[in-house]
Amino acid sequence: MSSQPLLPQERLLSSSNPKRRMILTTILVPLLLIAGIVFVSIKGDGKPKDNLGLAKYYLQSSPVIDGHIDLPEFARAFYGNDITKFDLNKPTKGHVDIPRIRKGSLGAFFWSIFVECRDDNGIDFLNPTFQVRDTLEQIDVSFNLIEKYSDTFAFASTSDQVEMVIKQGKVASMFGLEGGHMLGNSLAVLRMYHKLGVRYMTLTHSCNNAFADSAGIFESVEERWGGLSKFGRVLIPEMNRLGVIVDLSHVSDKTALQALSITRAPIMLSHSAARHFNNMSRNVPDDILAKIGRGKHQVDGVVMVNFFPVFASANPDEVDVAYIADEIEYIVGKTSKHHVGIGSDFDGIESTPKGLEDVSKYPHLFAELLKRGWTEHDLSLLAGGNFLRVFKGVEDVSKKLQSDGWTPSQEIYDKRIDLKPIEWEL
Ligand SMILES: *[C@@H]1O[C@H](CO)[C@@H](O)[C@H](O)[C@H]1NC(C)=O
Ligand SMILES: [Zn+2]
């Protein structure tokens, strides 16, 4: 088939065993060729002629990798994390269930690990809370769902695993942490989350934290650090060393610009709309888009577009498939087709665009872009190719830093007093 898949297929055919390789070439290849000729002569090239059919056809080999889905939060908010209380094989009240995942060609997604910001954290963010416990519960409920529905989901924490799981026809399930406030001000906690599979972290959610200032959501919050704190400047290299992707969704502009100047690895925005369309501090502005790329003074990255109409537009009722396609094309115009992706925010948003109501609808967005002249290759980059390039880049930097001798940061938040060593008395 002429289709140019996101995930290279050659590994499926390659074999280290010379005998098997001979069988492949002498028997299988001619057979496949004959079958192909017969098939094409009967069926044409087998490609659907309508845009929606063609979009679905292309998504079979390059399925959607969504940067942000709030399924764990859906479980917590509506069922107290009791996974016996809902059935993902049946229609849920949210935007995500297994039949709709299959219909929409969702091949992988980040399960958003999220607990709310608290407003009683105190000026130094030191008041004790249960946020670390609650975060662990969100990781636990995600693992429980992946295991319960193991015919559909498979946990993945490397780019290779994502590709392998997609090839097996399952949905690669990665974890992304939505906010530095869930670290309890501790790099040790970050390292343990990494061991549990967390592969990105938005530096903030909608509140400032010990590491960085947030953009706020519906109104900007008063800045505390003027971007990154001193500790935040230690956090980013530690994320680079571990291989946790620096995610700039939710952060203030100053935080984003400073993080871009510090990071040694590619970055992502897991679920952001463009500020050009709606002047909200939560949305990504042009001057930050200008820093994302592979040119001089730029950082490689992927901007995964949020579907929430309230972020997309000051007039949310107008947001439909074409509007989201406009946003994607705008971000492409400011960066390139190598820097866009999908970060729907499904199950975490109260309304959805017309025509993109749930995970079954991704193909409609791809059909809209086909109508606008996007090629199969372009679509495969948007669907997940760009994200995978960024993820691999982050993994490479992590390996390099560790082989250069970088060791776990011993830095602690300077406002903590509980880790003061006691003096030895002889
Ligand atoms: C966007 O909003 C900010 C903050 O409210 C304001 O300073 C700025 O002038 C606005 N920009 C435009 C183009 O309206
Ligand atoms: Zn969010």
From TrEMBL:
Pfam families (alphabetical): Peptidase_M19
SUPFAM superfamilies the record matches: Metallo-dependent hydrolases (SSF51556)
Lineage: superkingdom: Eukaryota
Catalytic activity: an L-aminoacyl-L-amino acid + H2O = 2 an L-alpha-amino acid
Keyword Magnesium belongs to the record: no
Transmembrane spans: 21-42
Keywords, sorted A to Z: Dipeptidase, Hydrolase, Membrane, Metal-binding, Metalloprotease, Protease, Transmembrane, Transmembrane helix, Zinc
Cytoplasm recorded as keyword: no
Cofactor(s) the protein needs: Zn(2+)
EC number annotated for this UniProt entry: 3.4.13.19
Recorded family membership: Belongs to the metallo-dependent hydrolases superfamily. Peptidase M19 family.
Protein's UniProt name: Dipeptidase
The species this protein was found in: Kwoniella shivajii
Origin organism lineage: Eukaryota, Fungi, Dikarya, Basidiomycota, Agaricomycotina
